[in-house]
């Protein structure tokens, strides 16, 4: 049913000549037919169509809420459309600001992404011109103590890939299946801690984007405005919370503890402590003697 007057439609519905569903559909069609006659914050045609689709569920509530107290149904619907258009505009602007903030954070990362740099230890090996190994699974670092390499691998188990295990197993003198079993056991032991770390990272990411959204919203608010002062206060609180969350995240170690490594290998914790201490001392010595220092 088509009609140019909401009053006529309401009278037909009140008299029982049309059903509720037909009445609501007719209102929606009438709004769509004269969508450009309403003050809808200069929305484009595509945005107007989206707005009308978004508006449809509100028509039912509007019909239930209408009371004939002197204002016509036509004026009532027009007022509802105007207020809804303002809300839709605010929601759309907030969504656009959020999307802008996310992409503003992601684009620099995409442009600056590059391959992992070569580490100092590799540079030292190159300057020493070591003999080339005929074993394609050979690692670039010469560990005289295979157990130290095993401890180092298990220490960083969360960064170990399947391909790396294939290449590392011959160097540590442990069968590939056994090495995989050790890393899997560590993941089971540290499953709860790893989940806490992932959850904390997600919360930090969310808080970071929340700060960016607040900063962007702040640029749209005029000076000496109550809304701006409130948004500025929210931004300051969000930044403070972000710093506290970052400190907490930095305090969560993603690596396995020496006790856990000792349990997996089947040796004493003291042996793991000594091996790890020697590894750190060796690394510090090579870093101090690096050509870049």
List descriptors.
about 290 residues, about 70% helix, 12 helices, mainly alpha
Structure in a nutshell:
The protein is mainly α and 293 residues long.
3D structure, described in words:
This protein has 293 residues and is mainly α. It is built from twelve helices and no strands. The N and C termini lie far apart (83 Å). About 12% of the residues have low confidence.
Strand portion, in percent?
A: under 5%
Span between termini? 83 Å
Apparent shape = elongated
Sketch the major β-sheet.
none
Topology:
Blueprint: H1 6-14, H2 20-33, H3 45-65, H4 73-112, H5 120-127, H6 146-155, H7 162-172, H8 176-189, H9 191-219, H10 226-250, H11 258-265, H12 269-288
